[in-house]
Design goal:
- The structure holds 2 protein chains of 2 kinds.
- Chain A is mostly beta strands.
- In chain A, 0% of the residues lie in helices and 54% in strands.
- Chain A contains no helices and 11 strands.
- In chain A, strands 2, 4, 5, 6, 9, 10 and 11 form a 7-stranded mixed beta sheet that branches. Chain A has a 4-stranded antiparallel beta sheet with strand order 1-3-8-7, with no helix packed on it.
- The termini of chain A are far apart.
- By secondary structure, chain B is mainly beta.
- In chain B, the strands form 3 sheets. In chain B, strands 2, 5, 6, 10, 11 and 12 form a 6-stranded mixed beta sheet that branches. A 4-stranded antiparallel beta sheet of chain B has the order 3-9-8-7, with no helix packed on it. A two-stranded antiparallel sheet of chain B has the order 1-4.
- The relative contact order of chain B is 0.33.
- Classes of the chains: A mainly beta, B mainly beta.
- At the A-B interface, strand 5, strand 9 and strand 10 of A face strand 6 and strand 11 of B.
Chain lengths: 116, 113
């Protein structure tokens, strides 16, 4: 079946540093990918839609300068948390729709970010 | 705007008992409805989905859900709980096919021996 990977699976960084999270579709191409954020014991909140070859579309209230998204190829999207602060600590999950599965979304395993 | 309400943040059942996780949705157009399962520190796995057609949908691991338009509900059931079913379950709705999923707050299923 379709597989979406994320790297790293967890990361700890100091406040003020930037962290890059990768999302890859391993056996299909995705012109669109989605980035979600999940706080402990809460639901997933859509942050942005990553579009290959164009700018990402951010949901209301999400700082585009803080959460930089680059869809570099048809199989890779990256989320960079810039100048991270403890309140950015969260579980970040990406998903990608697969065209030959009727655009069903396949989710990555998530990345746990902890900012000290 | 679309929204999802999951009643009960926690549901506890005994192994072998019926599992019922409730989901009500709000949508201005015929929705796509989903149930996902999440194990600790992992991503989401699709259990089942309703798009069009038959309102009773069967998914993986013995789960099923019924789309009831009149009640705007999409409750998840399983006749007999197994210890391995213990996880977080999310109901989701989309008005754009599979795009832009809106998730409920989740229900943690606890299964006791």
């Amino acid at each position: 079946g379709a597989v979406v990977s994320q790297h790293p699976s967890w990361v700890i960084c100091k406040s003020g540093t930037s962290v890059k999270i990768e999302c890859r579709s391993l056996d299909f191409q995705a012109t669109t990918m989605f980035w979600y954020r999940q706080f402990p014991k809460q639901s997933l909140m859509l942050m942005a839609t990553s579009n290959e070859g164009s700018k990402a579309t951010y949901e209301q209230g999400v700082e585009k300068d803080k959460f930089l998204i680059n869809h570099a190829s048809l199989t890779l999207s990256t989320l960079t948390v810039t100048s991270a602060h403890p309140e950015d600590s969260s579980f970040y999950i990406c998903s990608a729709p697969r065209g030959d599965f009727g655009n069903e979304q396949f989710f990555g395993p998530g990345t746990r970010l902890t900012v000290l | 705007a679309q929204s999802v309400t999951q009643l009960g943040s926690h549901v506890s059942v005994s192994e072998g008992a019926l599992v019922l996780l409730r989901c009500n949705y709000s949508s201005s157009v015929p929705p796509y409805l989903f149930w996902y399962v999440q194990y600790p520190n992992q991503g989401l796995q699709l259990l089942l989905k309703y798009t069009t057609g038959a309102t009773l949908v069967k998914g993986i691991n013995g789960f099923e859900a019924e789309f009831k338009k009149s009640e705007t509900s999409f409750h998840l059931t399983k006749p007999s709980a197994h210890m391995s079913d213990a996880a977080e379950y999310f109901c989701a709705v989309s008005e754009l096919g599979f795009q832009k999923l809106v998730f409920g707050t989740g229900t943690r299923l606890l299964v006791s021996p």
